[in-house]
Design a protein that fits this description.
Blueprint (H helix, E strand, L loop, with lengths): L1 H16 L17 E6 L14 E5 L2 H5 L5 E4 L5 E7 L2 E9 L12 E3 L8 E4 L4 E4 L3 E3 L2
Parallel strand pairs: 1-8
Antiparallel strand pairs: 1-4, 2-3, 2-5, 5-6, 5-7, 6-9
Length: about 140
Amino acid sequence: MRVFALFLIIASVVWLTGCEGDNNPSSPASMPEAGSISGTVSVPPTAAGTVEGTAVHVYLSREDAMLMRPTVTVIADKQGNFEFPSIYPGTYYLGLSKDNDSDGLMDSGDFVIDRTTHENCCCSVNASCATQVSPCVYVIP
């Protein structure tokens, strides 16, 4: 009987604290409207390989980008098009990669983002807005 009474008390506390209505941060009314990031990956004309299959990464911070810890990744299509359709407002860092020779290493001939044309590889997303980017590939020599 004591176990049952204890169970009822715990269940009541859990139920009462889980019903905060609109003050609950996971409530749909308090969530910001998502935006999107989309674009087209381009490859220098002298590069061997195609953009199809290039992984485009979104990072929450510069540190995550340096440590290669993406938040989300999508794959570019034959034309290099990609889209992250639901990204919450904020500042993000982009990266891309393609292991052209499929050896499991990022080495000669593989694609990474060209950081000389995209300072900090940074973009901002606003609520309900589409952010367009066009990252260029750097081919590892």
